[in-house]
Design a protein that fits this description.
Elements: E1 7-10, H1 17-27, E2 32-36, H2 38-43, H3 45-48, E3 53-56, H4 62-72, E4 80-83, H5 89-99, H6 106-113, H7 115-124, E5 132-135, H8 138-147, E6 153-157, E7 167-169, H9 175-196, E8 208-212, E9 217-226, E10 229-240, E11 248-253, H10 259-275, E12 282-290, E13 293-300, H11 308-316, H12 320-328, E14 343-348, E15 354-360, H13 362-366, E16 371-375, E17 383-384, E18 396-401, H14 404-416, E19 419-423
Parallel strand pairs: 1-2, 1-4, 2-3
Antiparallel strand pairs: 5-8, 6-7, 6-8, 9-10, 9-12, 10-11, 11-14, 12-13, 14-18, 15-17, 15-19, 16-18
Helix pairs in contact: 1-12, 4-5, 5-6
């Protein structure tokens, strides 16, 4: 293929993120060594086919990845190491360290992934954060509530993702219900992780968080580090299901912030990333904007999910992974040439709970030229449950247009043309 020094992509066999990542590497003439579990490599042969070499290794097993790098990396000069999955980022950092390649510090990545530690580190560096506590029992939660009145509060797992196990509670009498949801959601998440070859320790519900509820509209900042400096490409506005679980149901770009607010967001996010030691790769930083103040949420050193990268690329013309690879290749990358030029949005379908009896109009809607991406996993006979996290979502449309409003109008028109009917009497 192209390059003489291969690029290691840790946890790269997935769609659509892995497909986009590997395509952008191959487009630049890079020889990709694809590292992933046996199940994932078998599941996505078309991605494996793009790679120069496939390596069977659990991307989430940091020590196994380190051992492989020590054994097989000594005699091979690599261009770099790249990852994009939440649970592959510590392995990516550790392998880069072993191979003597540029990368984020492993401890930095671990600190960011552990939500309570991340909040405390941000607070120590001068960024406002909701108060938070690690808990093991309902009594721990109630003790925190008693000292942080008047509430409300959020109960959530320590290191899961996608809103799994999240609940808002208004008082001590709602704690047991929130913990029951936490346990059942983590069990479902554990099943999903097993299918991905990921240890269930990542879904452990025995240690969890309770934190003060943060008012304000939810957003996220998407960007890439260039020459050691984080640059925000776009700000995403989020649509959620609201209380009690706040499942993300859609996104719109650019966010509806005025120029002063957007500048404040970019300054805050950039300052926080630099303070936390993030100086290379991609990032996705969640935050709230309330009463002219930016309050940071979770900080991720990987791209967003939910087709947000696809939308960012559509409205800026920038290939996110490609911007990282270009720097590895020593090519000039100019963030000043990355203005937002269009609008994009996406939304999940949320049919009423029950058994699906009819689906009509999907093929026509999905083939509309304004559609950036689409996916329909629903079929007649499926049982639909209320959505409480990303695990309960499946079918979506993403659209683009010359403006954000044009993209939103297109999305609403196309979603209205799709009929999904359910029989509520058939709810399990």
């Amino acid at each position: 293929m192209g390059s003489t020094r291969p690029l290691l992509v840790i946890g790269g066999a997935s769609v659509p993120a892995g497909e986009e990542c590997v395509h952008q590497a191959v487009k630049r003439g890079l020889d990709v060594w694809l590292v992933d579990s046996a199940a994932n490599l078998e599941r996505f042969p078309h991605i494996v086919g793009l790679a120069e070499k496939a390596i069977t290794l659990d991307y989430n097993d940091v020590e196994a990845c380190v051992a492989w790098a020590k054994e097989h990396g000594a005699g091979q000069e690599f261009l770099g190491v790249h990852g994009y999955r939440e649970m592959a980022m510590e392995s990516t950092a550790a392998v880069a360290e072993v191979l003597g390649l540029p990368g984020l510090d492993r401890e930095t990545v671990r600190r960011l992934r552990e939500k309570a530690r991340c909040r405390e580190a941000l607070r120590e560096r001068g960024f406002r954060q909701p108060r938070v506590a690690l808990c093991r029992t309902a009594e721990d939660v109630r003790a925190f509530i008693a000292t942080t009145l008047p509430g409300p509060w959020i109960v959530k797992p320590r290191s899961a993702q996608g809103g799994v196990g999240v609940s808002r509670v208004s008082g001590a009498d709602e704690v047991d219900t929130a913990l029951a949801h936490l346990r059942s959601s983590c069990a479902a998440f554990g099943g999903w992780l097993r299918n991905q070859g990921v240890p269930e320790i990542h879904s452990d519900p025995t240690v969890f968080l309770v934190e003060e509820f943060q008012d304000g509209q939810e957003y996220s900042a998407e960007g890439v580090c260039v020459d050691g400096v984080p640059h925000v490409l776009a700000v995403t506005e989020k649509l959620t299901s609201g209380p009690p679980h706040f499942a993300e149901l859609g996104h719109a770009l650019p966010a509806g912030l005025d120029a002063d607010a957007e500048n404040r967001v970019k300054e805050t996010v950039t300052a926080a990333l630099r303070a936390m030691g993030v100086d290379m790769g991609l990032f996705h930083v969640e935050f709230w904007y309330h009463q002219h103040e930016v309050v940071l949420g979770e900080v991720h050193v990987r791209p967003a999910g939910d087709r947000i990268p696809t939308m960012v690329e559509a409205i800026t013309g920038v290939e996110l992974h490609g911007a990282v690879f270009d720097q590895m290749l020593g090519r000039a990358v100019d963030p000043s040439a990355w203005p937002v030029q269009r609008g994009a949005t996406m939304r999940y379908f949320t049919p009423a709970p029950g058994r699906i009896t009819k689906i009509e109009g999907w093929d026509k809607a999905a083939s509309d030229p304004r559609v950036l991406a689409s996916k329909c996993d629903l079929k007649v006979g499926d049982q639909v449950q209320p959505v409480s996290s990303y695990l309960g979502r499946s079918t979506y449309l993403a659209t683009t247009g010359p403006t954000r409003q044009a993209a939103v109008d297109a999305l609403e028109e196309l979603m209205a043309s799709v009929v999904i009917e359910t029989d509520p009497a058939a709810t399990i």
